[in-house]
Amino acid sequence: MQGGLKMPKIKHDDVIDVSAEFVDDVDGNIETDTVDETAENTDVVDESNEEVEQKDEDNQEDAEDDATDDAEDDENSEEDSEEDSEEDSEEDSEEEENEEEAETEEEADVKPKKAKKATTKEKAKTKTKATKKKPKVTKADIIAAFQEKEMLRMRAVNEREEQALKWHIVQDYAHTKKIARGTVISVEETTSGMVIAVVNFNDFRVVIPASEFFVKAIAVEEGVSNQARIRREKQVLVKSLGAEVEFVIAHAKQEKNTNTNEKEYVILASRKQALLRQIKYYFGKKGDVRRVEAGKIIRNVPIIAVGKEALMVTVCGIDKVLTKAQLSYKFLGTLVNTFYVGDRIDVAVIDVIEKDNDTVDIKVSHKQTQLPQFKKNISNCSIGGMYRGTITIVRDNTVQLYLDDVNVPAFSKIIKLSNVEDLPSAGDTVLLVANKIVPERGLVLGTIIRIIKK
């Protein structure tokens, strides 16, 4: 039995749910028609056909010139045989050559003119066709363009209005000093060497200095350097990334950035002030009665940090570290594989301790919230029965274990077993004989007689 600790009675109606917000006494693309290029392609084909015809005519002219040259050769041969007709034939051939050259020059002058005229006409036709086939802007196109422009304008207006509304909510929390709630999204260091936690609240960055994150300042050894202090503060705060925390906004204004000359939202807050107000509300006495006393069940307590062997929760304004022994009767390996930052669990208040400096502390346990279920399951156990169980903790000559098959916790004194040389340790599977049943606590007291699996 854990240090002889007595469990208070838990009443079913003594339940506080802290998941709710805390309140104490004090947010068509326009389709454009593309130009049909089919007609232009047809014009290009027509132009190529005309060029082919012109080449055929040139080839015919070359053939005529070759025939003329052959005729001249024949005439020269006739001159050798017939000297009398030489002068006449030369004159005739010269006249024919002159006539042919004149005709060739006239044809050469006419053909470029025709080609130029044809090219000009074709260009004119192409321009006319292209001009005719430009997309027409219809009434539907104009309406669609207007609607798209109006939609973009309205979207911009809505975004501005939404931003203004969110900023108004932030200012309201700042003026009324209500406790706000947000998620830790980053841990940063300022140029002045201050470590800060950045919280997302209503899509705004809220800055909480490390000195205002806990009620007690983060423990740092005396005489350490400034760099060592910064490293230690980062190490502690970084475990709270993703945690949901509560804070009070101390400063919320729009200020101009001297570097960019643009307006920025500057929001500073304190988690410490929010915790102190919750402690005063839940543990402050009204007469002789507190809102939170031993035996209360606190529902939906947020987990703000998780380590390998322990985790931290915030219970009614008090940050508490829970070890494996306070979390479950079952065997737990590394806690980071079972519990996660941002999750919520239930805890039972074991005791409320008053201190000399008018402050309070509490003892809480997560495993005690399962007591009603253990009381039901204990009916499956009997004195003298043998049960298989897994050891969770070995401490002060006492073994705490969990009977897996009947789902109840058990305790046993450490004894020297005859079949093994080593004593049992956490994680071992053993065989236990029940010596006593405690129905009001849902607990079995027994003796380990054998190790099943080490």
Explain the overall architecture.
The protein is elongated, with a radius of gyration of 49 Å. The two termini are 23 Å apart. The chain has 7 helices and 16 strands. It is α+β, with helices and mostly antiparallel strands. The chain folds into 4 domains: 2-23 and 283-370, OB fold (Dihydrolipoamide Acetyltransferase, E2P) (Beta Barrel); 38-132; 144-274; 372-453, OB fold (Dihydrolipoamide Acetyltransferase, E2P), CATH 2.40.50.140. A hairpin with a 5-residue loop joins strand 2 and strand 3. The model is unreliable at 1-6, 27-57 and 70-89 (pLDDT under 50). 20% of the residues are buried. Helix 1 runs antiparallel to helix 2. Strands 1, 7, 8, 9, 10 and 11 form a 6-stranded mixed β-sheet that branches.
Topology, pairings included?
Blueprint: E1 15-17, H1 38-81, H2 86-132, H3 139-176, E2 179-189, E3 195-201, E4 204-209, H4 226-237, E5 244-256, E6 263-270, H5 271-283, E7 297-306, E8 310-315, E9 318-323, H6 324-327, E10 344-354, E11 360-365, H7 371-377, E12 386-395, E13 398-403, E14 408-413, E15 429-438, E16 443-453
Parallel strand pairs: 1-7, 14-16
Antiparallel strand pairs: 2-3, 2-5, 3-4, 5-6, 7-8, 7-10, 8-9, 10-11, 12-13, 12-15, 13-14, 15-16
